[in-house]
Structure formats: structure tokens, C-alpha cells
Amino acid sequence: MSSHGGTSNPEYVNARVRSRRAALFEEDDYRKLARMSPAEIARFMEESPAYEEQINALGSRFSGVDLIEYALNASLAEDFEDILSWCEGALYGHVARYLRKFDAWNVKTVLRGVYADTDREAVSDDLIRAGEFDDRLLERLLDADSIEEIVELLSGTVFGRALGDALDDYESTGVLVPLENAVDRAYYKLLRTDDLTGEALSEYREFLEAEIDFRNAINTLRLARSGADIDPSEYFIEGGVLFSAAGLRQLASNTDELIQRIRESRYGEELSEALTELEAAESLIGFERALEVALLEYADSLGLVHPLSVTPVVSYVLTKEREVDNIRAIARGKEAGLGPEEIESELVVL
Amino acid sequence: MANDVKPTRKNLMEIEDRIDLSERGHDTLEQKRDGLIMEFMDILDQAQDVREQLEADYDTAQDKINKARAMEGDVAVRGAAAALKEHPEITTQSKNIMGVVVPQIESSKVKKNLDERGYGVLGSSARIDEAADAYEELLESIILAAEVETAMKKMLEEIETTKRRVNALEFKLLPELNENKEYIEQKLEEQEREEIFRLKKIKAKKEEEEKEEEEEREAAAKAEAEAIETGVAESDD
Fold this sequence. Notes:
The complex is a heterodimer of chains A (350) and B (237).
Chain A lengths: L9 H13 L4 H7 L4 H9 L5 H7 L5 H23 L2 H27 L4 H7 L8 H9 L3 H7 L6 H14 L3 H14 L11 H25 L18 H8 L2 H10 L3 H13 L4 H17 L9 H25 L4 H7 L4
Helix pairs in contact in A: 1-17, 3-5, 4-5, 5-6, 5-17, 6-7, 6-11, 9-10, 10-11, 12-13, 12-16, 14-15, 15-16, 16-17, 17-18
Chain B lengths: L8 H64 L1 H9 L6 E9 L2 E9 L17 H111 L1
Antiparallel strand pairs in B: 1-2
């Protein structure tokens, strides 16, 4: 974990992030990758400075698309770890707030590993060490033999309280759902924007609100489509601007009204096409993808108005994440025998 | 084999009884075979539909999991799968179709609600939900296909067995029994003819003997009459 005292240093971090951003893959690169075999994609990545080290380091342990996926995750982790290490003061807090999603990922991965009795090395490979947790804590989590031990080890972290509260539920039901939901809820609670005041942070606040609104919308639609008798307000995440817990309960029983609510919101224009598709189709995947595109557009516009704030850093974080997702999608798509056009249609590119 | 059978009336009656029984059995088995074939054709239609559904479900499930692995990553998909410990269960019962015992498979815990799949709802995606949905559908299709195709296989085996029995009666047992019957009938007729012939012979011999005896008696009487005649003449002299 980096030291994060002192004053904010957005000028320094933004300068470094700008050079990294310049090295990200372009749309043309994705088009080229979509026409390559997985082995060629791995070679292409080996020639890219962002992935060269990870491909070489993991080449002896993994092969094929697994090598690509693990190298992408490792590159993502190292990149974000670097960014956190450059940040000082309030900037660190703003960036770490978003990157804690990888801590949440790691906690869930470790919980699932113990639950399914997976061997330590396999669980360790699946961690994405891009959050705030240091290696020592992660190693101790990996050494844990029981769910209770993991909850105990995390008691001093941002997830501790939520996990402690959900432990009884886990013990009575025997399923991980309460613990996983507690971890995600704790993460989304950290995203709440109450402390993001001032004009410079307004775009970041809007972005985080959009992320929470989109998550609430997609989760409500998922619950409504599943047909299960689940109260959507139990899965409501505070911090957005579009829904309230009570309103969501009502909207879940009438998805047309839910879609109308999104259409009339500040996201309506961007999501209009996806909402029309959603009304006609059974699948939520297209809508989920549209939400990802909308978030990426938010991210892309972040930092244009206030270039010396946290927003260009967050924008880079999202764009790098999207690059990793796109390369993985291309490699996995090739592995599954999908054609270049079909793969390109799944990519999220601005 | 006809030569192994003793040509007696008792055996003939026994064979006639067996022929009667076999013919009735043959008719019954033929009816059973035809009934089984009709049932089989119904199950075959059902099996073809189930198989087509199974293949479609498999393609959908593969497509969904491939896209989930592509967009969410293999690690995320494996992680979501690892969060589930409760496996589906199946129980088998049996039902009877025209004497053929076929399985009836009941499944439980295949279709799960979103909150029963083990992974958290808040941090997962619709892609993983849809892949899980598609695999649950596929599993249900597999269970149905297992039930229908096992029934079809058992019906087919029973049809084959019944067909073999009908053929064995029609082309082996009944011809042999009829051959034996004919053989015995021929032998018995032969024996009857021989008996008649023998009786005729005896009768002829008896008549000949009687004739000879008559002739002897007549000759003796003649000789006696001649002797008496000669004695009278001598005395006259």
C-alpha cells in the first residue's frame, strides 16, 4: 500500500497517466487482433510494452488464451498499482475508492476458493492485485482454511463490518450469496458521492452516480426477468440519483415503467437505442453492453472540463479496463470459433 | 426332428395341442409386436423432437458460455460456478408400456432462482445469469432425452425379442410341429394299412385252410363212398 498523506498531486499523476494512455490500443489494433489466432494475439501483446513483461513472466506456466487472460489481469494490476503509488493526498482516496472493486473481486475469489475447496495456487492466480490490499494481507487470505477465518482477517478492512453482519446468514443458509452481496454492497457504499463536493469533482460524482444507477437498473431487470419472488429493494444500492428503494420495488413489477423511467432520465438520450432493443428482446446482454458503452463515454469525457482533477485518472482506469476486456473478448471469441465481425460486435469501443 | 418322435396316437394328440398353443401364442405375439411398434413410433417422434431441442439447447448454452467467458473472463465464470455447491438431483421411477418397464426420471434443483445460484447478485452480470439459465435448460433437456431415449432403447429391445419369438414360432417351431404331426399321421396310416393287409392275409389263409379242410373232407367222403360201393359189389359177386 502506498503512502497517501500530503497534498493532492493531480498534475504529476495526470502527466504520467497521459503517457500510459497514449500507449493504449486503438480501434485499428482491435480490428487487427480480431483477425489473428490466439497465438498471434499473444505474440502481438508480447511486442507491446504494456504486456511484454507479463507475457514473458507467465509464458512458462500458461498457454493459449489462458496466458493472454492472466497476462491481461497482471498488466491491469501492475498498471493500477503504479497509479495508486503515484497518488498523494485526496487524489489517492478518490482513485482508491474506485479501485477497491478489485479488493472486492479478490475477497470474493478467496471466499469462493475456500468454499469450493480450490487449491491455493489456482486461487492465487485468479486474484487481480490492483486494489488497496497489500500482498501480505492477500497471502494471509490465501492461507485461510475457512470462511470464518477470512471474515476474521478482513475485520479491519472496509469489508469487515458488512462481512461480519452477513456471516450468520451464510452459516444458516450454507450459500455464499449473503457474503458476496455484503462485499459488493460494501464496495458500492464506498462509491457514494456525499464527500465529492466542488465543481472539479462534479463529473466524477456524476460518473459514480451513473455507475450506481446503471447497476440498480440492470439488477432490477435481472431480478424481474428471473421470475423469482425476490424483493428488489434488498438489492438496492444507495448513492444513485435515478431510483429509491421503494420506487425500485414498484418498478420491478412493471419493467415497461422502469424502462420509461430510464428513458426520461439524464441517461435517456444515450441509452435510447438500447432501451428500444431491450423492449423487443428477451436478452439483457445488449442492454448491459449499452450501459458499459455509456459508462465508457462518461469516462472518456471525464477530465476534458477539469484536466487537473481526479477525472483524467479515473478515465484512464476505465479505458485500460475496457482495453483488457476487449483483448480478452477477442482471444476468447477466437478460441470459441467466433468470426471477426461477431467478435467486433461484442467489443466496447468508442 | 420328425424321426425322433415316436409315431403314436398319444404323441399326435400332444403335438396337436402344442400346435394349437403355438398358433395362439404366435397370434398374441404378433399383436404385441405390432402394438409395440406403434408405441415405438410415437416415442420415436417424441425422441426426435427432444433430440432436436437438446441440440438447440446445447448450441445456445455453448454460445452463452463462450460469450460470458469472452466478456466477463474465464476467471469470473469459473468463480461464479465455484460459488455453487448444491447440485441437481434426479430420482428414477418406472412405468409400464405394454409390458416393457421404462424409466421415468424426475429432476429437482435444476432450475434455480437468481438468489439460489451461489454467486452474489450485486456484483455479477446478466451474461453469467443467461449462461447459467442456458445450462439449466440444457440439463433439463438432457434429463428428458435420457428418459425418452432409454424408453426407446428398451422398446426397441422388446420389439426385437418379440420379433425373434414370432419368427421362431412361425419359421421354426410351428413347421417342426406340423412336420412331426404329418410324420406321425403318415406312420399311423401306414401302420393301419399294414394291419388291414395283415388281417386280409390271415383271413385269406384261414379261408384257404378251411377250403383245404373241406376238400379233404370231401375226398375222404368220396373215398369212403367208393369203398362202400366196392364192398357191395364184391358181396354181390
